[in-house]
């Protein structure tokens, strides 16, 4: 049997086992809905498909937080695998996107282990240790992490191959690291680059380390199409100045939880509840410990230990050192995620250890691979929570049906539910007070289980065409204003008043509804104990106020929260110059007509009795431009949160268009980085 045939058989084995390991998704058609998969990525990818299939760029999701940029957030919206949605039914493509991440991870680790010199059987074992690990299974609940993770072994494989003399591997390495970035998990890119540089030093000394560093820089350039827009969004958010220690160390391992490395019976949430297991298993650990003590293995062992210590967060000095030394590290959180590169290091170590054991007994390697596969299947088969078939993601829930003809927004006002086991655990944490939503952003625990179950979680509401002022993505611009106005609006009465000012027609409350609001209940969801309460005098999605007054950005929030705020009569606009004085005889807001809404555009017809502004009750963000009857016009911030476009007296057609900041520049850098990588490869070939 030739070497190519044996390699082909190993590849077929990996693909087959990968599909069988996740047979409920691949063969039974179970659609992943657990945690962020159902609440965030399912609806956003559904939005992506609806836009691309009609020839539009999915740049702006209007249903989340009064509007959310899509391409600059960590949703894998620019990953090439999302092209599955263009030729497969959505549910099928969504399922196989997850399965393909597993299959690619298996193949990449197999190739990486082979490049390190292990036998085919040992490389299959290493692929099992990576693709069926607890951390890879956990990552499938957060598809951007899975898509980033599955590209990491390809980058290490190509980097080592390039250092070993394969010049075409240069291009492969830069493309693979670019996919790590484009996948969406920006934290993973510098971690994998550090592993590559250390491996480069082990394989080729100083020259090898510099070689790996150059490939890493080019790889980051390939990922610039996502890296640059994401950096700009983060720079405008609360993360720009860095996370607090309490938020950065959230979801850290405890020393006592390290026992879960060896045994996962009974299963219990670890790392603060972010993951359900950190099981590695004795087979992997023993084989990794038996790896020959050569430079490559010692480098991987050192990195594995550092990753494990970093995952402990405040309980070990490593993560704190990263925050202090690495300039951008204070924007990252969740130390437990350092277990992802730990798995990446342990898998090839296990392959090296298996080869060492099989030097004189070749039959032992496939036996060890079988034992390892059985162990990981036992421990991790049910780790990826699929949940039951949730008709809430394919059939509109009661409140969404009841409000289907209402063009306004909804807002879920501080829903309270009996605490789940996870929330009780957090409340017992001595640092709990530092982890409240007002300290860490505009999401977290403001969403109750009832709201999620009713499929009114903000991104999910996009499936029913419902727009919401609640927000999922807290790392956005104007987060502080969001908190101050929407979340700190005072008692319920004031909250209703403020919500109506921003186009919210219905507030979602838990039943029983207070007596004073019973007459305003328009719909109820009995199963989940929710009611849609009508907001009196809510302003329309777009309108022309009686007048507009200039306000300084520093004063905008205070003036919105001040008594007497009446945006229908006087909009507070952050304009560069003074506006026309108010008209005392004006009757109030004049509704405008939204004639069309695209994936990055909004068309409005409006009548102006005099020169003034059109207010769009959707969140303002950098990247919006406007035209009035085809002529360019500025877009200003109105009422501290929303958009305004000035126009002269008369009837006008106004178009607003959103272009993701940094997208074109990032795309240019990506193309240049690919061309440079190709040039260096071909130039070296000629030499």
In spatial order, strands of the major sheet run: 9-10-17-18-14-8-11
Task: Give the overall silhouette.
Answer: elongated
Please work out how many helical segments DSSP would assign: 24
Q: Please state roughly what percent of the residues sit in beta strands, choosing from under 5%, 5-15%, 15-25%, 25-35%, 35-45% or over 45%.
A: 5-15%
> Spans of 5+ residues with little confidence (pLDDT < 50)?
416-448
Q: pLDDT average, as an integer?
A: 84
As for the number of domains, it is: 3
**How would a textbook summarize the main sheet?**
7 strands, mixed
Integer-rounded radius of gyration: 27 Å
How many beta-strand elements?
19
Ends apart, CA distance between termini: 36 Å
Helix-strand makeup class: alpha+beta
Compile the SSE list and pairings.
Blueprint: H1 3-21, H2 23-26, H3 36-52, E1 60-61, E2 68-69, H4 90-115, H5 120-131, H6 134-139, H7 143-163, H8 168-183, H9 188-222, H10 224-235, H11 245-248, H12 282-289, H13 295-311, H14 317-325, H15 339-357, H16 364-380, H17 398-402, E3 409-412, H18 421-427, H19 437-440, H20 449-453, E4 467-468, H21 479-487, H22 492-501, E5 504-510, E6 521-525, E7 530-534, E8 542-544, E9 547-550, H23 553-561, E10 570-574, E11 590-591, E12 593-597, E13 601-608, E14 612-619, E15 624-628, E16 631-633, E17 636-638, E18 642-647, E19 650-658, H24 663-686
Parallel strand pairs: 3-4, 3-5, 9-10
Antiparallel strand pairs: 1-2, 5-7, 6-7, 8-11, 8-14, 10-17, 12-13, 13-19, 14-18, 15-16, 15-19, 17-18
Helix pairs in contact: 1-4, 1-5, 4-5, 4-7, 5-15, 5-16, 7-8, 7-9, 8-9, 8-24, 9-13, 9-24, 10-24, 12-15, 13-14, 13-15
């Amino acid at each position: 049997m030739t070497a190519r045939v044996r390699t082909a058989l190993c590849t077929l084995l990996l693909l087959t086992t990968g599909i069988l390991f996740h047979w409920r998704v691949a063969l039974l058609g179970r659609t992943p809905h657990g945690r962020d998969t159902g609440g965030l990525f399912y609806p956003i990818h559904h939005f992506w498909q609806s836009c691309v299939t009609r020839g539009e760029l999915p740049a702006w999701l209007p249903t989340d937080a009064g509007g959310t940029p899509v391409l600059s957030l960590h949703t894998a919206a620019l990953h090439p695998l999302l092209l599955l949605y263009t030729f497969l039914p959505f549910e099928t493509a969504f399922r196989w996107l997850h399965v393909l991440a597993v299959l690619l991870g298996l193949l990449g680790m197999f190739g990486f282990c082979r490049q390190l010199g292990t036998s085919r059987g040992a490389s299959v074992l290493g692929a099992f240790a990576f693709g069926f690990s607890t951390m890879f299974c956990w990552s499938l609940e957060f598809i951007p992490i899975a898509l980033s993770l599955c590209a990491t072994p390809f980058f290490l494989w190509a980097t080592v191959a390039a250092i070993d003399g394969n010049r075409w591997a240069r291009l492969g390495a830069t493309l693979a690291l670019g996919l790590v970035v484009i996948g969406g998990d920006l934290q993973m890119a510098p971690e994998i680059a550090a592993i590559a540089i250390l491996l480069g030093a082990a394989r080729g000394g100083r020259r090898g380390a510099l070689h790996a560093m150059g490939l890493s820089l080019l790889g980051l350039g390939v990922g610039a199409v996502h890296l640059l827009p994401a950096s700009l969004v983060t720079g405008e958010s609360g993360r720009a100045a860095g996370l607090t220690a309490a938020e950065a160390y959230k979801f850290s391992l405890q020393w006592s939880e390290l026992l879960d490395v060896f045994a996962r019976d009974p299963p219990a949430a670890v790392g603060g509840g972010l993951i359900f297991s950190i099981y590695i298993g004795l087979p992997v650990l023993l084989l990794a410990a038996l790896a020959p003590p050569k430079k490559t293995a010692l480098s991987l062992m050192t990195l594995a230990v550092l990753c494990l210590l970093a995952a402990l967060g405040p309980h070990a000095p490593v993560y704190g050192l990263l925050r202090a030394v690495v300039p951008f590290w204070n924007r990252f959180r969740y130390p437990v995620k350092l277990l992802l590169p730990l798995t990446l290091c342990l898998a090839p170590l296990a392959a090296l250890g298996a080869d060492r054991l099989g030097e004189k007994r070749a039959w032992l390697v496939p036996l060890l691979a079988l034992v390892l596969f059985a162990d990981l299947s036992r421990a991790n088969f049910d780790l990826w929570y699929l949940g039951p078939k949730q008709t809430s993601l394919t059939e509109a829930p009661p409140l969404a049906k009841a409000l289907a003809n209402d063009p306004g927004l909804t807002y879920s006002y501080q829903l309270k539910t009996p605490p789940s086991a996870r929330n009780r655990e957090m409340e017992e944490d001595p640092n709990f007070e530092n982890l409240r939503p007002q300290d860490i952003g505009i999401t977290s625990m403001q969403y109750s289980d009832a709201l999620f179950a009713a499929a009114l979680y903000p991104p999910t509401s996009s499936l029913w065409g419902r727009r919401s002022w609640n927000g999922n993505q807290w790392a956005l611009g104007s987060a502080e204003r969001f908190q101050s106005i929407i979340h700190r609006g005072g008692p319920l009465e004031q909250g209703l008043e403020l919500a109506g000012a921003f186009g919210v027609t219905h507030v979602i409350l838990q039943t029983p509804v207070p007596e004073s609001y019973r007459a305003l209940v328009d719909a109820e969801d009995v199963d989940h104990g929710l009611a849609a309460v009508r907001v009196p005098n809510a302003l329309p999605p777009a309108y022309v106020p009686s007048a507009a007054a200039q306000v300084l950005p520093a004063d905008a929030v205070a003036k919105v929260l001040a008594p007497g705020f009446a945006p229908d009569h006087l909009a507070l606009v952050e304009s560069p110059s003074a506006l026309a004085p108010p008209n005392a005889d004006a009757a109030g807001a004049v509704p405008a007509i939204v004639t069309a809404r695209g994936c990055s555009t909004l068309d409005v017809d409006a009548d102006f009795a005099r020169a003034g502004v059109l207010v769009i009750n959707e969140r303002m963000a950098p990247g919006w431009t406007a035209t009035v009857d085809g002529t360019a016009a500025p877009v200003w911030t109105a009422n501290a949160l929303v958009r305004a476009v000035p126009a002269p007296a008369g009837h006008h057609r106004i178009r607003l268009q959103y272009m993701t900041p940094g997208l074109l520049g990032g795309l240019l850098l990506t193309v240049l980085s690919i061309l440079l990588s190709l040039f260096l490869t071909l130039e070296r070939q000629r030499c």
